[in-house]
Amino acid sequence: MSPNSVTSGSVRSAAELNERIRALWLRAGGSLSALERAEYELLVVEWAAAIRGEVVTAA
Fold it and tell me: Over 80: is that where the pLDDT of 40 sits?
């Protein structure tokens, strides 16, 4: 996944994003390259937004 492919307003769930984050770390062997770090940061931001959305929906 290219870091530029993540757009705001994603419809991915927090669980899906968590799995992608875990898979990224496994693929990278625990040490991220600069490109992988950028992807990780975007995934974490998107995951945090998904978590907030799920909390708001639950309330």
Answer: yes
